[in-house]
Amino acid sequence: MDRFSWISSNTQLQAGELLVIQQRGLRIYDGENKTNFDNGNLMLTSHALIWEDEEQQDRRIRLGLELITRTEEHAAGFMKSAKIFLYLNPPLASKDPGPFSSSAFTYIKLSFRSGGHTEFHKLLEQQLQKKAWLQGKPKEVVAPRVHRRGPGIVGIERNLEEKSRATGKTITQAFKDLDALMEKAKEMVALADKFASKIEEKKGSITEDETILFKSYLLSVGISNPVTRETHGSGTTYHKELAKQLEIFLREQLKDAGGMMTLTDVYCRFNRARGMELVSPEDLVNASRQFESLNLPLRLRSFDSGVLVIQSSNHSDEEVIRDTREKLFSNKCLTADELSKILSLSVMLAKERLLVTEKAGKACRDDSVEGSKFYPNFFLETPVE
Fold first, then answer.
1. Which 3-state string (H, E, C) describes 244-295?
2. Which structural domains are found in the chain, ordered by start?
3. What is the reported pTM?
4. What pLDDT was estimated at residue 121?
């Protein structure tokens, strides 16, 4: 961060300097340390990076692109935003005052909490290659140096150059192969969508085993054209579009799960299907809260224990209580683990079913050092015939 300089809010771009792209919601790290340069607008120009506070627009800093030696893009992970690492040369002696007088790090991190890192990184690399800040500057004339090299050193240098060229060709080819693979993946998804519609048209003519097998193939292919902040902006608009895609994704899965899934289970399955375009837990919750306002057949529900689930809007607690009551009478008593195996549910959801049944007065609980066991409430209930 000691490479940045303060600039005033009315500072214009330099002569010949052009604005390339802007990105909102940027946080800057000094190496591994968080800074108070958070939630700002980051502008990439042909000459520099300019960060501006979204609330205090007179709080602006600038980093010349000539100081950047190399960059690295890091995709988002679980509870982590996507980042771009910038490795920097030492600050210039003539540098204007900045927010840091010194730093223990030789790199900074740009945290993209609102997405857009891939496009930004691509454009940044283009500007670093163009070196527009050198245009119009006189070139230095450097006197040639005479080096006495032994034949062994010359041979080593040639080998290194050849290896470097070979590595560059290999990397270029690898990226070409990756692009081709991604194009094929799009074709596979389109084909899968077509087959899915055919299955809907020909229900009854396809065996259940074939249907289950094909659904597993669909899940492994993933979601085509996932909703992202880059394509649908941020805020409510993004969450509404995400909710629509989530409802489509969960249609069949909720049926197989008995009409209810924990939010953690949904989070894992949804992100698995989205591939590299991961959503944060916060965005998933906000999207789930849009179901009712969009008239989608899903609801976000919170149990008394605090467990969040997504359930079908036609999901009936009365039906759950009746079914759980029958299982209790059939087995005399059940733990959450035992009920989960009977119903093929997670232990967490099985326990919530038992607690809901208990709350309705249809079950009794016995807590001991061995855990909780649930029994039919014989005081209010008669055995199921």
1. HHHHHHHHHHHHHCCCEEEHHHHHHHHHHHHCCCCCCHHHHHHHHCCCCCCC
2. 5-132 (2.30.29.30), 236-312 (1.10.10.10), 317-376 (1.10.10.10)
3. 0.41
4. 93
